[in-house]
Design brief:
Helices cover 20% and strands 29% of the residues. The chain is of the alpha+beta class.
Length: 340
């Protein structure tokens, strides 16, 4: 089933506060006209962002997106076309890892909201290819609970910071990348799909998959870019070397994101689920999985909030799964091909 797409409603300028708009209509974001940067006068301090208000949190997330380096997503590589010729295209395995993305205060508050939502979460469902029936079938992930974060009065009241994060990230990251990406990679600025998931431990894991495997925007699945943030305590997984040299075998808690063919074909890059770590990659091409997760305590439960940015309706395209990638990573005979 294609993901449920949530339309982001715009704020009514001057009529509604940010909090009122979220409560009244669900997800929302106020469009701002570009303004010219102004030099600060000598001795004038930069204003402090107030994380106790919705406006302050939205501005904080916007500023973090603006300051972050997403250039690996725009890297060009040579690609072999169907006619045998070579052409430059966006690297299908481009991946961005940003630590300390939101700061301790906000990420801790978001985890508190996520913990409060656990009673509403259900066993996480995914899909995979079944060779016997020659069709995509659903299956239940072991030890994983999930839910979709929604707006509206009830949704915003339950998790205001999670809602604000999804709205601001979607709007600001899509606009930033659209400035430099080719038309086929353009992203919708006011649409997304999302999932809050928790691995309960005891070996919870995700099978190897591509989020939008062989997807087609015509078929309804328009997920183009995946952005996930880990909601663990900020000091989680201390003792590991910095990315990209982390090793899952050195960490008994597990739950590592493993990116295949990164940085080169045949390589596997392990990424620890450190608290406040943002991981961004192309939904329609990166092969990945999650290693078994173990949680000796509640603090070790692996929370991940995933936001899928959507291909622009006019020019955005979903890549068909590369035949060589399918042959290298998925054994159709064992029906292991899957989607996130």
């Amino acid at each position: 089933m294609p993901p449920f797409i949530i339309l982001l409603s715009l704020l009514l300028i001057g009529l509604l506060s940010v909090a009122d708009a979220f409560a009244a209509g669900g997800f929302g974001g106020k469009k701002k006209q570009p303004v010219k940067s102004k030099k600060n006068k000598p001795g004038k301090k930069q204003p402090t962002i107030n994380l106790f208000t919705p406006e302050g949190r939205l501005e904080h997330i916007r500023s973090r997106v603006h300051a972050a380096d997403f250039s690996p997503l725009t890297k060009l590589v040579l690609k072999k076309l169907d006619n045998g010729q070579m052409a430059l295209d966006i690297d299908p395995n481009g991946i961005v890892v940003i630590d300390n993305f939101l700061g301790n205060d906000l990420i801790s508050s978001m985890r508190t909201e996520a913990l409060s939502l656990m009673p509403k979460m259900i066993p996480s469902q995914s899909t995979r290819w079944d060779e016997e029936t020659q069709s995509v079938i659903p299956y239940e992930k072991k030890g994983v609970l999930s839910m979709q974060i929604e707006g509206g009065t009830e949704g915003y009241a339950a998790s205001p910071r999670l809602v604000e994060y999804i709205v601001s990230l979607t709007n600001n990251l899509s606009r930033k990348l659209n400035q430099v990406l080719p038309d086929a990679y353009r992203l919708a600025t006011e649409e997304q799909s999302n999932k809050l998931a928790v691995c309960l431990g005891d070996g919870s894991y995700y099978d190897k998959h591509i989020d939008n495997l062989g997807g087609s925007s015509d078929a309804g699945d328009r997920r183009k870019l995946t952005a996930l943030i880990y909601l663990q305590p900020p000091n989680s997984h201390d003792g590991q070397p910095p990315y990209p040299n982390e090793k899952v075998e050195d960490d008994p808690r597990g739950g590592y994101f493993r990116a295949y063919d990164v940085p080169e074909v045949g390589d596997v890059t392990c990424i620890a689920p450190r608290g406040d770590r943002l991981v961004v990659f192309w939904s329609d091409s990166l092969v990945h999985d999650v290693s078994p997760s173990f949680a000796p305590s509640d603090d070790d439960k692996r929370f991940a909030l995933t936001t899928w940015l959507i291909a622009d309706k006019k020019t955005g395209e979903i890549r068909a799964t590369d035949v060589e990638v399918s042959a290298r990573h998925f054994d159709f005979g064992e029906s292991s091909i899957g989607k996130g």
